Amino acid sequence: MPDTFTGWVAHDPKSPLTHEPFTPKPFEETDIEVQISHCGICGSDVHTIRSGWAPADYPCVVGHEIVGTATRIGSAIPSSKNIKLGDRVGIGAQCSACLRPDCEACADNEESYCPKMVGTYNSRYPDGSKAYGGYANRWRGPGHFVFRIPEKLSSEEAAPLLCGGVTVFAPLRRFGAGPGKRVGIVGIGGLGHMGLLFAKAMGSDAVVAISRSSAKKSDAVGSTPGSLGADDFIATGEDKTWAKKHARSLDLIICTVSGENMPLAGYLRLLKRNGVFVQVGAPEEPLPPLRAFSLIQKGVKLTGSTIGSPEDIRVMLELAAEKGVKPWVQTRPMEEVNLALADMHEGRARYRYVLENAKKTGKL
């Protein structure tokens, strides 16, 4: 019979999570099992718990920014993974894909776009068993989506990178952030603050923070250890001329915010000819309407991006370790998960909460 894990379980959209046992997927020789030490709180967790995007598959254990210790390794895990018992490892928002050579996405090392992609929680494996996430004491799943954590990254700093970090890093990498590019990041929150850190670490000529107000300007702008490294700041709700003043100044914009009232046409005005706007925030409501001329006049590209591939995660972790990219995190005891979720929903995080299991024992 399968082992029993324990975690914080959602049973409906409104009730608090309850601490109780659950049954993970059956162990296969392609799997790795992890004793969880840390798990970041992602906005996706909140959307899922309250069935914001669609009805959740209750009972559900969320959490997909998981770090812990490898405690069981299947015999079919390739040596190229270089994961041994006792190693510190992480799991992001995806835990399975078909990995078939005739799958266009998997063959191109873009497993996150596989039609048979399985999310780390609120999803089902091909055998019908549920995928349970990281608000728990243990995790079990395919080793292809488990990654060694570099020694230079602490567990609490590494956890948010595995979903939030790669969600902004992947489009920055794909669309050429770096020398010769001016990059804008819309939204200074859990995702956006990591977007600023990575755009800067990749060597972009300029990194511009974009927010409704200047409340977070002191966090965003500057080169000191106490700032996120942005070179400039645009407060769209305080300067009525912002779109005109900064028109044609950016090559790439990563948008982490969601909302039907966001000034999408104004954001596109900031782009240079052939500039790219990438939506990574996933609102529950539709995006605002857009006039065709916002796209036509400069040949700009409006696109989206989901999480990141295993290759994106590997490259990101290496860069974060090399350049010292450290998300701003606040650790919370795992047993305070309900309070932490409420604080997250109220926007109190600066800028990412990370749940921490009891030290030494790893117990909840």
UniProtKB/TrEMBL annotation:
InterPro entries: ADH-like_C, ADH-like_N, ADH_Zn_CS, CAD-like, ER, GroES-like_sf, NAD(P)-bd_dom_sf. Its EC number is 1.1.1.2. It is an enzyme of class 1 (oxidoreductase). Its cofactor is Zn(2+). Keywords: Metal-binding, NADP, Oxidoreductase, Phosphoprotein, Zinc. It holds the Pfam family ADH_zinc_N. Residues 14-355 form the Enoyl reductase (ER) domain. One of its GO terms (biological process) is alcohol metabolic process. It catalyses: a primary alcohol + NADP(+) = an aldehyde + NADPH + H(+). GO terms for molecular function: alcohol dehydrogenase (NADP+) activity; zinc ion binding. Residues 1-21 are annotated as: Disordered. It comes from the Eukaryota. Homodimer. Belongs to the zinc-containing alcohol dehydrogenase family. This is alcohol dehydrogenase (NADP(+)). It comes from Aspergillus puulaauensis. The lineage of its organism: Eukaryota, Fungi, Dikarya, Ascomycota, Pezizomycotina.
